[in-house]
């Protein structure tokens, strides 16, 4: 009786192994078909890249000293790239609000990874 159960188990295991191999072959065929297609036939879209906004000086900021905070963040576009410095000038006098505003601006400028705050200084 125990031989019968072992034979059933062995045959079921072989069936599952064959099904797994067939699935791998099918996926490999699909991948090679996709790779062998010309580049123009694939529809690959890149996300839009936000450009930094250049601000024109306003009448109020030309003759007066600005109040607010300048936040410097270490940001990255990819997980394994080097840190870049991102500077954001906030009109807020709250350090926390200025930091959050700078992080939002960095993400909007195309830097999805904000590492840490380098410096927060008054303007």
What's the layout of helices and strands?
Layout: H1 2-36, H2 59-63, E1 69-76, E2 84-90, H3 95-108, E3 113-122
Antiparallel strand pairs: 1-2, 1-3
What does this structure look like?
- With 123 residues, the protein is of the alpha+beta class.
- It has 2 domains: 2-41; 66-122, no CATH class.
- 44% of the residues lie in helices and 20% in strands.
- The protein has 3 helices and 3 strands; from the N terminus they run ααββαβ.
- It has helices at 2-36, 59-63, 95-108; strands spanning 69-76, 84-90, 113-122.
- It has a 3-stranded antiparallel β-sheet.
- The radius of gyration is 29 Å and the shape is elongated.
- The mean pLDDT is 78.
In total, how many domains does the architecture comprise? 2
Order of helices and strands, N to C?
HHEEHE
Could you tell me the radius of gyration in angstroms?
29 Å
N/C terminus separation: 86 Å
Q: Please work out how many helical segments DSSP would assign.
A: 3
Instruction: Tell the overall outline.
Output: elongated
Fraction in helix: 40-55%
Provide the spatial order of strands within the biggest beta sheet. 2-1-3
Strand content: 15-25%
